[in-house]
Write a structure and sequence with these properties.
111 residues, 4 helices, 39% helix, alpha+beta
């Protein structure tokens, strides 16, 4: 004869409900957030970017580049390109907050 251990059943049900809530929150956030999912290794995004004031290309290894970027504030924005607006990842500095970088808009299609 089998007997149910109520503690383990309650723990199982609690973890199941928690997983469902986290999944629903992830789906909701996916539809609310306007930008692409780009936040893997942030230092690798900056290699060919002119928006950070770092040496271009691969002149710094990833550890040195990460140390230079650790105190910077970043933002995701859009710039107009030849084929339409592009999503960019940039440092939030005086130079780039006054330039043509604008906030992402919900109805705009980005290249």
């Amino acid at each position: 004869m089998y007997v149910c251990n109520w503690f383990w059943l309650a723990l199982y049900l609690l973890s199941t409900v928690l997983l469902i809530v986290v999944t629903v929150c992830g789906i909701i956030l996916k539809h609310i957030y306007l930008g692409p999912d780009i936040f893997g290794y942030v230092s690798s995004i900056t290699y060919d970017s002119a928006f950070f004031g770092l040496p271009p290309g691969r002149t710094l290894d990833s550890i040195k580049r990460s140390r230079l970027l650790k105190d910077m504030r970043y933002r995701v924005g859009a710039v107009d390109g030849a084929q339409g607006p592009h999503v960019i990842f940039t440092a939030e500095t005086e130079l780039y907050t006054t330039s043509t970088i604008v906030a992402l808009r919900s109805k705009t299609k980005y290249v």
